[in-house]
Amino acid sequence: MSEAPIGIFDSGVGGLSILNAIQERLPNENLIYFADSKYAPYGKLDEARLKERCLFIANFFHEQNTKAMVIACNTATALMAEWLRAEYSIPIIAIEPAIKPATLITKTNKIGVFATSHTLSSQRYQNLKNTYAKGFKVFESHCLGFVEQVELGELETEQTIGLIKRYLQPMLNNNIDTLVLGCTHYPFLKNAIQKVAAETPLTIVDNANAVSLQLNKILNEQGILNSSHSGRSTFYSSLGSESHNSIFSRLLSSDTKVNYIAD
Q: Which position among 4, 106, 164, 192 has the lowest Cβ density within 10 Å, counted as fewest Cβ atoms?
């Protein structure tokens, strides 16, 4: 059981930011990553369609005998985490915007949150904000277009910079000093966001480290950490495209082969 793989999925390539953190903390684990890029962004899907996609991927992981599953997507976490946990017996580690860490960092008590519309409107997110952000001013934006730019590998193009300016500048005008990246695609835009913020003091936080810590904790508690050898990562996608390999390779900074899975 300890050598069984861990399944990680996202609507596309964004969850690779989570995979990177897991690889760093748990280098002996075997990982299977599924990018559902054919259907990205999940924020545009209705709940029924999103459930179909999560079921398809979870069943694929089940066929691969995974010992744990990581939902590396805030939208899927917000709407499907509890349902998936009821359906599958393996540990399921979900992700959520780093509101709590942001409240511990901010000095102006003003926080920006970049996330999808599904995440921002979900009860899970509202509960998180009500629990940890009382007394803080929270500015939110659904950032239409961010996921698509990352999926294309256009991380610092003129169009991407323009989108970031559109969503970030009003927050900076309101004196935020901390920005939560509430979608796993967005950390790949961190350099571009910092360029737009320029000399404005801005701390950017995401939840990749928290997810890897939680995964490590659960695997350790259940006695299924893999300590026998260096782990291997395998990549799958619902999008059959040669350019997809180059985007994976760019985001992971290494040559990467992506296996196509037809649905």
A: 4
